[in-house]
Amino acid sequence: MGQLNQIIAVEKSVKTRVHESTSQFHKLIQKPALFEGLSRKYHPLDDADKEVLPSENKKVQFSIGDLLRAHNKSMTELFAITARKDWTNQHASADIKIGDTVLIKDVPVSYLLFLEKQVNDIRSSVAQIPELDNTETWLSDSISGLWKTEETKTHRGKKIQRPITLSEPTKEHPAQCAMITEDVIAGYWHQVKMSGAMPKTQKEIMLERVDTLLKAIKVARETANCIDEVACPDVGKAIFTYLMED
To answer: 44 and 163 share a domain?
Structure first.
């Protein structure tokens, strides 16, 4: 009898070994020729007949009885280690604590594993949250729930053409004129930027809290996995005794 964490450490190698053994068993039983043998000798009817024909022999390579016994032994090991884990899991739980505060009490170890995965996914999502542009000054707008900048004013220019007099008219010559292009202000842009993103500091605080929660869940899981193993039935013996009963 050990602790739950010791059982979990062994379980993976047992599963790998049993998987390989089971795969081999399934391959062999799909080849009937491996279980067939032959011993064939020729005996002439007349002892005076000197004709000699070669004997034929084909060895049986595998016995289904031997394979089943080996397979049953392998499966019994898997059933045993899984039963030890699952029976003990029923009693394994721990509190999720942030500092001295109990966030959730008596959480089953199986649910702690579920929570750890979900909170890891939450962290990935939080890490991708868009941040407010830190080159701007943002103000919270309680009405829209958005962030806004102060209004900025910029002018809009346009080009116009106007005539100018190059030379005044005389008795001999008319006035000389030309068109010139000039930049003038046409109006003003009044701009307010809006954003539904998150301030960088707020995002960093959230990430820190997620990391703290993840750590607390892992500590709780390790604590729950330190529970002493509880007794469980011999599942493999019960199953294979029934299956192999004459």
So the answer is: no
